[in-house]
Amino acid sequence: MKRITARPETAHQAALLRLLRDRAWSRAELGDVVDLSRSKLNFEIDRLIELNLAEQAGLAASRGGRRSGMVRLAGSLRFTGIDIGATSIDVAVTDGELKILGHVSEPCDVRDGPVIVLNQAMEMVGKLRDQGYFTQLHGAGIGVPGPVSFREGMPVAPPLMPGWDRYPVRETVGQELGCPAAVDNDVNIMALGELHAGLAKQVDDFLFVKIGTGIGCGIVVDGKIYRGVSGSAGDIGHIRVDDQGPTCACGNVGCLEAYFGGAALAREATAIAGRSPYLGERLRRTGTLTGEDVAAAAEMGDAEAVRLIRDGGRRVGMVLAGLVSFFNPGLVIIAGGVAKLGHVLLAEIRSVVYRRSLPLATGNLPIVLSELGADAGVIGAARLSSDHVFSAP
Amino acid sequence: MKRITARPETAHQAALLRLLRDRAWSRAELGDVVDLSRSKLNFEIDRLIELNLAEQAGLAASRGGRRSGMVRLAGSLRFTGIDIGATSIDVAVTDGELKILGHVSEPCDVRDGPVIVLNQAMEMVGKLRDQGYFTQLHGAGIGVPGPVSFREGMPVAPPLMPGWDRYPVRETVGQELGCPAAVDNDVNIMALGELHAGLAKQVDDFLFVKIGTGIGCGIVVDGKIYRGVSGSAGDIGHIRVDDQGPTCACGNVGCLEAYFGGAALAREATAIAGRSPYLGERLRRTGTLTGEDVAAAAEMGDAEAVRLIRDGGRRVGMVLAGLVSFFNPGLVIIAGGVAKLGHVLLAEIRSVVYRRSLPLATGNLPIVLSELGADAGVIGAARLSSDHVFSAP
């Protein structure tokens, strides 16, 4: 029978664990930032050590007087981050500070449904256990490529995930791994990854825009994911670009995704294949084109592909310009398959946002490409789990 | 010499005062919701009573055992809310629960600059003192019709307020009234008014859209105003409606304000005056037309005026539809001079938002007209002040 892993017993213990997640602290330093008497603070720290959540780490440098004891998260803490994409699964195991210890990636098809896909994910977690990365997990975070009811821990009417509607992902994974679990959509967990370990580390309020099969946005307010009242915040793919556009899968015309989502890009690529040597050749060989083919063509300097990307970037920029005026973020990060299109795309987005948003909102606003790549998802999923476990009981 | 009014000494005292702002509580009930031992709680409450911030209010109904003492905010607490508009000043004095005790309203011209306008506001506060509504104020909140650096307590490059740029409004008012002061823009304070006493009372995340000379939006996240990293969040007047529109004062084309701000509405009204009996007559008499004339004409059933309002409402709806998909609010409130256009405007906005936003975001989304009117500004300004004074030291 598995041992039950400890969780913080009080709000103070949870707050201490969140501080220790960033680095080791001396007891004296902790006393400076938490609102507890010295004896109560030492009691809570000692209790965290008893619970195997924290451990002593020698003595701090002297601040005058007796040297204070250092405390850090227990070296035995382990979280897993599971990032389920439309066509792949990434699983990582991290320590308490959410540094990746082991990471495996496998192809999958999310349309095979939750039983097959979650079984594969559990086997991948098992491989990491067999490789010695953990014996017991303290928490698991899962990202899925569709809308999620965060409170209920399940996907809700996800368009790309047949069979997953209201499937109890959180409950299933929690029972299977014997630890607390949390589920969110892939864009939110990638935003959390950027917050924890990426370009947004020092930024409280930022937007994370993922351009892939769909187009979505993670919104971080005051260092926390903002999900909106029904959990759909950040769903920007169906914001109107103009009234005379292609018809979108949602039934409206002129949505951003109808211009620059994965399906739209594949359609446009096929339409220009006659004028593009690279895409034409590729279409003859494989019979179909994807957004990634457009990226590859653009990288090789194919003028028609570059034009497609510029047009798409301009439209993403138009939507983002409005959101930047509205939200006044401290940073915008662009990521996702299409973001591999890189600097052509970024230049176009920047040019529109800097021209069309309020000067006060763009004065100090960096717009950058994500640097974390596939790590953003797994680190973010581990962070989601850690936030959940290190929260007040 | 004036007596210095007390402020809470600890974060716990501040939290207790914020609870007491909503209603009277028994000590037992407070013990259920705050994370304090019984003796520490009683110590903090007794201290608030000593400081003349709270007072005893008899005994609570029995919950079994000894009856618990009721506590409420001190009856002597007084805040003032000062709402400076482009052409009027509203000043109110409230009690600690922010109920309006006295309210005066006077015309003014904000372009006369801060010395003349703030002097007039101070005289209006003096009138309320002379009428016996207070002897000493515990805090003052001020709203102004332009962008504000909330941290610095001053307007920053406000387009409609010549002479006010970086004028130390918070410092001046605080010194003049001998109490802590706080300053924000008019849209944010009206949103706070709705949060405290209006339709948003039970709503944590909502948008407050003011359509007047300019078009702005107050954003409330988790019961607090979200201001963005440089304080410009909610400035939606320059979001692009389309690429072939009128040129805006900001230099871009097709901004929302270029279609439906006060100046645009006046221009359009003049253009259609030949086809509109009411507007034509009004233009002959006064030589100029305003948005309020359009409202009056529409109310009388003038077809051309109604068409103007419908067109404007449709464009506000297009912008709002995107913001609703992005932000997934629990409520949208429409207010401001043009909002007096009422139900024609509201119907048009609703129709576009409900059609163009994500179904998940609009499923339970009410879009309503403000019911507070001029009270929203003064109550919100008092609330801003109360939030400031009842915050951790």
From TrEMBL, chains A, B:
The chain crosses the membrane at residues 316-339. InterPro entries: ATPase_NBD, ROK, ROK_cs, WH_DNA-bd_sf. It holds the Pfam family ROK. It comes from Streptosporangium subroseum. Belongs to the ROK (NagC/XylR) family. This is ROK family protein (Putative glucokinase). PROSITE patterns: ROK. It comes from the Bacteria. The keyword Kinase applies. The keyword Lyase does not apply. Keywords: Kinase, Membrane, Transferase, Transmembrane, Transmembrane helix. One of its GO terms (molecular function) is kinase activity.
